[in-house]
Structures are given as structure tokens and as C-alpha cells.
Amino acid sequence: MSSEAGETPSVAYWHLYTDEDGISRQRQCRMTEFELKSMQPPAAPQWQGRKHHDGMTVMVTVQPVGWEGAWHENPAPQWIIPLSGRWFVESMDGTRIEMGPGEISFGEDQNTVEREGRKGHLSGTVGDAPAVLMVVQFDTKRAETTPCRFS
């Protein structure tokens, strides 16, 4: 197999973060730092992104049809990857993003300031199927967030 795999990939993700005024916002970002190499020789090379070393907790959640959580912050910075179904995230600035399988969100809206009954984000299922989500939660919390920090 050839080691030529085309152009370096670019993978989109949504970043839910807290701005300097304590308001949660969402920005679409792209991971672009990939290196073509084998995960374990003799396996063929594949594009690998930067490794992030942090203790992590991994879990799968199932949000029932019609489920909607109250306004809340993510308990820790976490990747949320829909496996099936659809779900939404609404940030305090009014941005609402709907995601399904193949889309990625990074929730990092800690330390928001409550405004008009909103703090953090609102999330819930979309459609007539449960939303099955894989959550990869960092053990380390950050004091401040930088939008698109994985780009």
C-alpha cells in the first residue's frame, strides 16, 4: 500500500466555550495538525492528530426521545461524539447547533455567569430517536478557555 494518502485532512468540530464576560458561545473549528504514520507497524500509515495527555473518563450516554436538560455547565472539558440519533446544544448567546453521527463537539463552558436564567448551555434530543453519545471527559479542568484550542 502506498504511503501517499492525499492531502492532510481537516476535521471540523464545534467548540462550546466561555468568553471573557462569562457568556457561553460556540465556534466551528477545524483540527488540521495530522501526521501520516503507522499506529503500530506493520499496519499501513494513517493520518494521526496531536495526542493530548490527560487523565480521562469515557462513557456512553443515551438521551431519551424528547429529553431536554436544564441550563447547566459541562462538568469538565469534554468531547461529545454522537453515535446515533441527533442532539442539540444551545449556548447563552442564543446559538443553537444540532449534531448527529460524524459531528463532534468540545464542551468547555465552565465558569459562565448566569444571565436571564441562562448559565452554561441547554441541550437535548432532536427527532424521534434517542441520542446515543460518547463522552470523553478530561480529568483536568482549565482556568480559562481558548476557542479552537485543538486547531
Automatic annotation (TrEMBL):
Alphabetized SUPFAM superfamilies for the sequence: RmlC-like cupins
Superkingdom classification of source: Bacteria
Record InterPro entries: RmlC_Cupin_sf (IPR011051)
Protein name: Cupin domain-containing protein
